[in-house]
Design a protein that fits this description.
about 400 residues; alpha/beta; seven-stranded parallel β-sheet; five-stranded parallel β-sheet; 16 helices; globular
C-alpha cells in the first residue's frame, strides 16, 4: 500500500478501528507467553522487531514467538529460517493475533494488519529509529491542534503503545512529547538491531555486489529523503548531482583510494549515467540490512537522519553534509539535539571534502553522550528489552 493511500485508509477507517480495537480488550483468551512481531506495515522482515524476535526465539523458548506479515514472500522467508510466521489474512494469522498477549511493532499497529486484531494485547513500540533530529508526531503540533490531537489519540491512535523503547533519558523525554505517554511506560534498553555491532562481519561478503577493487576506506552516504514543497523537486537528487560534478570531490576519492557508497531512499529517483570510479549507488536489493552496511563502512556522511545515532555506537567518524539546511528548516523542524551535536557541518562540496579528510570523532562522542545511556553501554540490547517487557507486561516465565 502506498503511503498516501495508507493515510487515506487510516482516516476513513478511524471510527471503525477505534471501536473494534477497544472491543477486543474484552477478549479473555490472550496469553502473555505468546508474542507477536511485525514491522514496516507488514512488508518486511527487518529492523528492531527482527533482531528481538530472533533473540527471544533462540534464548527464551518459554515464549512462543510468531511473526505476522502481510507479504507472502516475507512469510516464506521467515519460515525458511525455521521460525513461525503467518500472513495476517490467513486463518492462523488472525487466530494468533487474537491469542497473542504481547504485540511488538516498529512503525504502528498496521505492522500486523490493516485491522487492529491486537487490541487487548500489550503493545510494545520498538520504533524504527530511536533518537535523531527530526520532530515527529505531537512535536509538530501546538495550541488547539495539539489538544485536539491528544483527544483523538486518547480514543485511538495507529501508534498506540503500552511500552516504548528508549536509549537514554533524552530519548525518553522525546518519546513522552512525541506520543503523549508517561515516563514509567518508557524503558531504557538500547535498540535490538544494534546488537549486530558486537559481531564480526566480512566486508567483502556484505558488499559483494559493489566491491570492484581494493580501497583504503569506504565512506557511506545515507541522507534523509526530502522534497522541497515549493518546487516539488527531490532535494537529495540535486545533492548527488552536485557531488558527481565536483572535480575536488571526485579527485579526493581517486587520490585517497576511497569508495563512496550512496544508499538513497527508495523514493529518490536517481540513476547514474554510466559508471563513475570510486562512486557507487546502492539499491535496496544490494543491501543485506542497513546495520550490515553501517558496519562495512569506515565513515558515515548524513544530514538529518537518525542513522547517525546507530552509527556512533561503532565509534567511527560521522560527517554532517547539509547544503540545504536553510531551505530545509523553512519547511521542516529539528529538535535541540541538532544544535547540541552538529557543531561542524559541510554546507557545500568543498567543505565536505575538508571534513572527510579530517574525519574527527568529536561529533561521534557527542552523539553517544546524548543518545546512549551509560547504564546500557556494552550490554545486550535485545536481552535488556526482553527482560523489561517481561517486567512491565507482567509476563510470568
Amino acid at each position: 500500500m502506498k503511503f498516501s493511500k495508507m493515510l487515506e485508509w487510516r482516516k476513513i477507517s478511524l471510527p471503525f478501528v477505534c471501536l473494534f480495537f477497544h472491543f477486543l480488550k474484552l477478549n479473555p483468551f490472550r496469553s502473555k507467553r505468546v508474542w507477536l512481531f511485525g514491522c514496516w506495515i507488514g512488508k518486511k522482515y527487518d529492523d528492531n522487531s527482527k533482531f528481538l524476535f530472533e533473540h527471544v526465539c533462540k534464548n527464551h523458548p518459554e515464549i512462543r514467538c510468531i511473526w505476522i506479515t502481510r507479504n507472502a514472500k516475507v512469510c516464506e522467508q521467515v519460515r525458511g529460517l525455521g521460525y513461525e510466521c503467518y500472513t495476517s489474512s490467513s486463518v492462523k494469522g488472525i487466530f494468533w493475533m487474537l491469542r497473542g498477549g504481547v504485540a511488538i511493532m516498529t512503525n504502528g499497529l498496521d505492522d500486523f494488519c490493516r485491522i487492529p486484531f491486537v487490541g487487548g494485547a500489550k503493545i510494545v513500540a520498538l520504533w524504527h529509529g530511536v533518537g535523531g533530529f527530526k520532530k515527529i508526531y505531537n512535536e509538530n503540533y501546538k495550541g488547539l491542534k495539539l489538544k485536539l490531537k491528544k483527544v483523538t489519540d486518547f480514543f485511538f491512535s495507529w501508534v498506540h503503545r503500552d511500552l516504548s523503547l528508549g536509549t537514554s533519558e533524552y530519548t525518553a523525554e522525546r518519546v513522552m512529547e512525541q506520543f503523549g505517554v508517561n515516563r514509567d511506560s518508557i524503558v531504557i534498553t538500547g535498540q535490538p538491531r544494534n546488537d549486530l555491532f558486537r559481531s564480526g562481519i566480512d566486508r567483502k561478503v556484505v558488499l559483494k555486489n559493489v566491491l570492484d577493487a581494493e580501497y583504503d576506506k569506504i565512506v557511506l552516504y545515507m541522507p534523509t529523503y526530502r522534497v522541497d514543497p515549493k518546487t516539488r523537486k527531490d532535494v537529495v537528487k540535486g545533492v548527488v548531482e552536485g557531488l558527481l560534478s565536483s572535480e575536488k570531490f571526485l579527485g579526493y576519492l581517486r587520490e585517497r583510494h576511497v569508495l563512496f557508497l550512496a544508499k538513497l531512499h527508495p523514493l529518490t529517483d536517481f540513476k547514474m549515467n554510466g559508471s563513475v570510479p570510486n562512486f557507487k549507488l546502492l539499491g535496496d536489493k544490494e543491501v543485506q540490512s542497513v546495520q550490515h552496511l553501517l558496519m562495512a563502512s569506515d565513515c558515515l556522511v548524513t544530514d538529518y537522519s537518525s542513522c547517525c545515532v546507530d552509527y556512533a555506537l561503532l565509534k567511527r567518524p560521522v560527517v554532517f553534509f547539509v547544503p540545504d539546511e536553510k531551505d530545509y528548516l523553512s519547511y521542516s523542524s529539528l529538535n535541540d539535539a541538532y544544535s547540541r551535536i552538529v557543531r561542524e557541518k559541510a554546507g557545500n562540496v568543498d567543505e565536505l571534502v575538508d571534513l572527510l579528510v579530517a574525519q574527527k570523532m568529536d561529533q561521534t562522542n557527542l552523539l553517544n553522550g546524548v543518545f546512549e545511556d551509560p547504564s546500557i553501554a556494552g550490554t545486550c540490547y535485545s536481552e535488556n528489552t526482553y527482560r523489561k517487557i517481561c517486567e512491565k507486561c507482567k509476563v510470568v516465565v
